[in-house]
Amino acid sequence: MRIDIITVLPELLEGPFAHSILKRAEDKGIAEVHIHQLRNYGVGKHQQVDDYQYGGGAGMVMQCGPLVDCIEDLQKDREYDAILYMTPDGKRYDQGDANQLSMLGNLMIICGHYKGIDQRVRDHWVTHEYSIGDYVLSGGELAAAVISDSIIRLIPGVLNDETSALTDSFQDDLLAPPVYTRPEDFRGHKVPEVLTSGNFKAIEAWREEEAYKRTKARRPDLLED
Ligand code: ADE
């Protein structure tokens, strides 16, 4: 998989991709992430990428020209399966989206700033619009890092324990059950007995029950579908 991210703040993305699972995926040659500075396509001496909005109102809008020049430059080298725009008014991103996107080859992600990007780019170039939650971030970079992480960790070979992505919260519309590690007794707080019983059937049944109880208490909406 290859992900190309278009941003005016590449520095914000360097940290997340330099470490952890994303770094491991890059080192193994399973995924590559390329970050592109939109200002290189900016207009004039100041490499401007935004302008006042038509109709008046506070806040700048990212212009079509630099964005489309950058998109088309990238499209010269490869076809993209999806062009994502991170925006608080997009579809609420979930595990199902991560699963689907992880099966694609080339993704492009546009990070918005200010009041967002000119609607014409959204109408004619962008294929998917995602929000990572009902709150407003200063820009799309952190959202792009979040969804890249959620996608890349699903690609076979990225995680050491191949099965662990399958038992994540949300993969079966249930939250994950509680987990414990040594010691068995920490300051009088004991690990549930079933987990040390060696009875795998009973352990499996306990986990299912706990996952269900947790989901019912915290996210009853997941059980409704
Ligand atoms: N950009 C600003 N806020 C955002 C959000 N909640 N999700 C995705 N992109 C954003």
Strand segment tally:
9
**Compute the gyration radius: what is it?**
22 Å
Helix content: 25-40%
Give the name of the CATH architecture of the largest domain: 3-Layer(aba) Sandwich
**Could you give the order of the helices and strands?**
EHHEEEHEHEHEHEEHH
Strand order of the largest sheet: 2-1-6-5-7
Shape descriptor: elongated
Question: What distance separates the N and C termini?
Answer: 31 Å
Give a nutshell description of this structure.
With 225 residues, this protein is α/β, with parallel strands linked by helices. The chain is built from 8 helices and 9 strands.
Description of the structure:
The protein has 225 residues and is α/β, with parallel strands linked by helices. It folds into 2 domains: 2-152, Alpha/beta knot; 167-224, tRNA(m1g37)methyltransferase, domain 2 (Trp Operon Repressor, Chain A, Orthogonal Bundle). The protein is built from 8 helices and 9 strands. The chain has helices at 11-18, 20-27, 64-77, 95-101, 119-124, 141-152, 200-218, 220-224; strands spanning 2-7, 32-37, 50-52, 60-62, 82-92, 106-111, 128-131, 185-186, 189-190. Strands 2-1-6-5-7 form a 5-stranded parallel beta sheet, sandwiched between helices. A two-stranded antiparallel sheet has the order 3-4. Strands 8-9 form a two-stranded antiparallel sheet. Helix 4 (95-101) links the parallel strand 5 and strand 6 (106-111). Helix 1 runs parallel beside helix 6 (141-152). The radius of gyration is 22 Å and the shape is elongated. It starts with a strand and ends with a helix. The structure holds adenine.
